[in-house]
From TrEMBL:
Residues 1-121 form the Integrase catalytic domain. GO terms for molecular function: nucleic acid binding. This is Integrase, catalytic domain protein. It comes from Candidatus Defluviicoccus seviourii. InterPro entries: Integrase_cat-core (IPR001584), RNaseH-like_sf (IPR012337), RNaseH_sf (IPR036397).
């Protein structure tokens, strides 16, 4: 959402729209920003009976997937673009979001774009812990592990 300010009421409307599209999650995890600690959000969580977990202040690693996404957004769009208007910012954000979610593969989803992963997972699919790819926790490594353990000592002898 790109706007001059974002209220808790606006945030709860956006969350309702996400739930309509994807189904209700078991819980939501967020930082302690004012948009997420407002009376409107607290009331919304009670009405929807949705658990809301706040990460510890100053501990962004507790919400690593979101922090990673925010970092990509900042590095690829926000730090690189001078927006001439709110409409320009909204259009640029929509293009970036489309690329990030529908075209770009992500390692946390088995190298699938998130939109495809979500479609294959289906509405309401619950993920406990880290996101899982379609059959494993992460993509398979490029090279197989050494059958006899480390061969670093052999490499040093050969290269010396």
């Amino acid at each position: 959402m790109a706007d001059t300010s974002l209220s808790g009421t606006r945030g709860s409307r956006e969350l309702d729209a996400i739930i309509d599209r994807r189904g209700k999650p078991l819980s939501v995890v967020s930082d302690n920003g004012t948009g997420f600690t407002s009376t409107a959000i607290l009331r919304w969580t009670q009405q929807t009976k949705l658990e809301w977990h706040y990460i510890a202040p100053g501990k962004p690693t507790q919400n690593a997937f979101i922090e990673s996404s925010n970092g990509w957004l900042r590095d690829e769009l926000l730090n690189e673009t001078i927006f001439s208007s709110l409409d320009h910012a909204r259009q640029a954000l929509a293009r970036w979001k489309d690329d990030y979610n529908t075209l770009r593969p992500h390692s946390g989803t088995g190298d699938l774009p998130p939109a495809l992963y979500a479609k294959l997972s289906g509405p309401g699919t619950q993920r406990d812990g880290a996101l899982r790819s379609m059959g494993a926790f992460a993509p398979r490594p490029v090279a197989p592990p050494s059958p006899m353990g480390s061969n670093a000592h052999e490499t040093l002898l050969i290269s010396g």
